[in-house]
Design brief:
This protein has about 750 residues and is of the alpha+beta class. Helix content is about 30%, strand content about 25%. The strands form seven sheets. Strands 3-5-1-12-9-10-11-20 form an eight-stranded mixed beta sheet. The chain has a six-stranded mixed beta sheet with strand order 7-15-14-13-8-30.
Length: about 750
């Protein structure tokens, strides 16, 4: 099945927040952000701005009728700054005008006086100052201290990982429409309609039921709209409340890049101990997360870093520490992988450093330590249907790893300035929200008398193919043609208390809720049919391809006949379904439990050629064996693997967030922040699915696919490093990502030494 939006997207007909016809009198908003990373607000002068053409009003923190608070996990974030600002771009005021140009012009007339205070941008400095969000966490497994004594080799090191800008095509936006009796409807580009509903309600001092949030689709979210879409909806709602008029807020790209949080940069220390045979005996890691100025989702992101710190390996003794460090950058947030990639990058770096010291190939250590069936993760869960070894073996065989090694070695012998490198990258990613209560979903299904079906869930279509998956699931659960199914917008009046569409679990959760709703309707239809047709057991009835069978024999009734008869007999043709992932638990006191419904595994092989005189590189091939369970929809899943991989490759190499010491974001446009394009993608990309028996709790045995393939991209760093070492085995190569062409060049030729860091200052 094709993505159901493919044709309309291609023709530009799909509707996003600001594509539906504008309501009469729609007003527009410009947001004034703080010019400094940290300071005391002395005064805000708005008189001149208010005189500008078309300006209706200016909204400040003092105008907020409810609570000026948007922090979802920890209440530490104002919607509009009050006395102090904590990062560059933090919203201070909004201008509401008849059109956007007028709002923008007036915004520049607002005078804000701020007394600058010292800003911290480095997570280790923040940690040393005691600027910590929540409490640091430590996962302990086995006994690291004792284990060091048994190790033949102990290696220590440090990693510094950059963050990542989401670059969703559709920037943050929302439209707020005042309704009667003080209610409000929002059309929002958010992964979390309920977070918008409850936060807008809090800002306006209203009960949740007064706020309706409707989400048709997103032009990409990637985690950047899990929590960080909320503020823009709140600002639009606040303006609509103050003016009594519909209001639209659309962030221009530049503002979006400056004002919104990104993937968390991390700085980490590792210590790894191995036997002479390359068995990892102990691993000790400390993660300093650069959380930015407010908690946002940082504590949950850090938790996933801890969960994934040993990637796809079994290590008998581990100590995994992490702290959220508060800095004066925009609050960092969810991004595909949700902290997992940072944990895995450090693990892979530790293995690389150990391999280099043992003078063996990295993959020797990797392979020797892969998770096996029933191995225990540091958080106490047992690996069930572990496929680390299986995907590894299949990748090694179907993509001829020995041949690749040979070819790379040959090439490097015969070439001077160009060197090849390769890497094997196994992944293991846990599926479920790590926040236990979020693992629930509701669905509302209606069958109309013509046999057409409407499905509402709390799931958001953000390009990932959610609506296509739900169409498929509903059609399959009913036994009808998928053209009869329409998936509706996610709307808070149809499905209450929805979790964000995130954690790769949207289809798992909402798909299962849909199946539960459909099953209830089908059950009612069957009860009716046995009595109308005078049959004995309703369990013997089944619907297939729109025909009703009894014990395998066609009853002569089709779907339409069944539905119409049900209607005339006053049978309820609507149902609400609910799903809560069974069997998951976690004890935060002990840091042990069974947090994930299941794990997704896979192995990638990556090959690059590095031009060692220019620092540039080309990805020759990426070959992946990915564990999908029983795919719902292979074409969609393939798209997800490719997209996630592209973002993972970009995170490791091209995408560089540059902040100056005073917290100003310098790579703040798509001219200076480089995302991978189609030419950057591997020349040769092969994706094989490991189609295994079910076992996963996803609908019909499918496994979640949204985030796990991101982590294949990590292999690129080590493939490039491999090539760099072939050119200069003595080069001092730090584990700093992204490994941009500039860094490749300067690390290989430090004597050419324009120090990029100094030049920046
Ligand atoms: N794919 C597209 N096209 N657009 C997106 O915004 N978000 C990713 C992934 N794939 C995203 C995407 C992220 S961060 C997550 S968590 C999952 O999709 C969310 O959707 P799912 O739960 O249906 O996989
Ligand atoms: N992933 C995404 N979002 C989340 C998670 C998670 O694991 N936990 C809480 N919010
Ligand atoms: Mo995805 S980072 O869980 O939105």
């Amino acid at each position: 099945m094709k993505h159901i939006d493919a044709a309309a997207h291609t023709r530009g007909e799909s509707q996003y927040v600001d594509d539906s016809p504008q309501p009469l009198g729609l007003l527009h908003v410009a947001v004034l952000g703080s010019p400094l990373a940290h300071g005391k607000i002395l005064s805000i002068e708005i008189e001149d701005a208010l005189q500008c053409d078309g300006v209706i009003t200016i909204v400040l923190a003092g105008d907020i009728p409810g609570e000026n608070q948007i922090g979802a996990i920890i209440p530490d974030e104002h919607l509009l700054a009050e006395k102090e600002v904590f990062y560059v771009g933090e919203p201070v005021a909004i201008v509401v005008a008849e059109n956007f140009a007028q709002a923008l012009q007036a915004k520049n007339k607002i005078q804000v006086q701020i007394e600058e205070l010292s800003a911290v941008t480095d997570p280790r400095a923040a940690f040393a100052n005691g600027q910590i969000i929540g409490t640091p966490r430590t996962f302990v497994f086995g006994d690291v201290e004792n284990a060091w004594k048994q190790c033949d080799l102990i290696v220590e090191g440090r990693c510094d990982m950059g963050g990542q800008e989401h670059v969703y095509l559709e920037t943050q936006r929302a439209r707020a429409v005042p309704l009667e009796n003080g209610a409000m409807r929002l059309y929002a580009s958010t992964q979390s309609p309920y977070a918008v509903q409850r936060t807008v309600a809090g800002i306006l001092g209203l009960p949740h039921h007064k706020i309706e949030v409707d989400v048709k689709r997103l032009g990409g979210g990637f985690g950047g709209k899990e929590d960080q879409a909320t503020a823009w909806s709140c600002l639009a709602a606040l303006a609509a409340w103050k003016t009594g008029k519909p209001v639209e807020l659309v962030l221009p790209r530049h503002e979006d890049m400056v004002m919104t949080g990104k993937r968390h940069p991390y700085s980490s220390d590792f210590k790894i101990g191995l036997s002479a045979q390359g068995k990892i005996l102990a691993y000790d890691v400390k993660h300093y997360q650069n959380s930015g100025a407010a908690a946002d989702l940082s504590t949950a992101v850090l938790e996933r870093t801890l969960f994934h710190s040993t990637n796809a390996y079994f290590i008998p003794n581990t100590r995994i520490f992490g702290a959220c460090c508060r800095t004066n950058l925009p609050p960092n947030t969810a991004f595909r992988g949700f902290g997992g990639p940072q944990g895995m990058f450090v693990m892979e770096s530790a293995i690389a450093k150990a391999a280099e010291q043992l003078n063996i190939q990295r993959e020797e250590i990797q392979r020797r330590n892969l998770l096996c069936e029933n191995d225990i993760f540091p958080y106490g869960q047992h690996a069930h249907e572990a496929r680390a070894e299986k995907t590894w073996a299949e990748a090694e065989n179907s993509f001829a790893l020995p041949g690749l090694k040979e070819r790379v070695a040959q090439f490097n012998q015969n070439n001077f300035e160009k060197k090849k490198g390769y890497a094997v990258m196994p992944i293991c990613f846990g599926i479920s929200f790590t926040t236990h209560f979020l693992n629930q979903a509701g669905a509302l299904v209606h069958v109309y008398t013509d046999g057409s079906v409407s499905v509402s869930t709390g799931g958001v279509e953000m390009g990932q193919g959610f609506s296509t998956n739900i169409t498929r699931i509903a059609a399959k659960a009913f036994g009808i043609n998928q053209v009869r199914v329409k998936v509706e917008s996610a709307n808070t009046t149809r499905v209450a208390n929805m979790s964000p569409s995130a954690a790769s679990a949207t289809t798992d959760l909402n798909g299962n809720a849909t199946i539960n709703a459909v099953t209830e309707i089908v059950d009612r239809l069957k009860s009716l049919a046995v009595s109308e047709l005078g049959l004995g057991q309703k369990e013997k009835l089944s619907l297939k391809k729109e025909r009703l069978f009894y014990a395998g024999k066609d009853t002569g009734w089709d779907w339409k006949k069944l539905v119409q008869t049900a209607y005339l007999n006053r049978v309820d043709l609507s149902a609400h379904g609910f799903y809560a992932t069974p069997g998951i638990c976690f004890d935060k006191q002990k840091e042990k439990g069974h947090p994930f419904a299941y794990h997704v595994y896979g192995t990638a092989l990556l090959e690059v050629t590095v031009d060692c005189l220019r620092g540039t590189y080309n990805i020759d091939s990426t070959k992946i064996v990915h564990d999908l369970g029983r795919p719902l929809n292979e074409l969609i899943d393939r798209g997800q693997v490719e997209g996630a991989l592209a973002q993972g490759l970009g995170w490791m190499t091209l995408e560089e967030l540059i902040f100056d010491k005073r917290g100003h974001f310098l790579s703040n446009s798509l001219a200076t922040y480089k995302v991978p394009d189609v030419f950057f993608m591997p020349d040769d990309l092969e994706i094989n699915f490991l189609q295994t028996a079910p076992g996963a709790s996803g609908p019909y045995g499918a496994k979640a696919v949204g985030e796990p393939p991101f982590m294949y991209g990590i292999g690129l760093f080590f493939a490039i490093r491999h090539a760099m070492r072939a050119f200069n085995p003595k080069a001092d190569l730090p584990f700093n990502s992204p490994l941009t062409p500039e860094k490749v060049l300067l690390q290989l030729h430090p004597q050419w030494g324009i120090d990029a860091e100094n030049r920046r200052r």
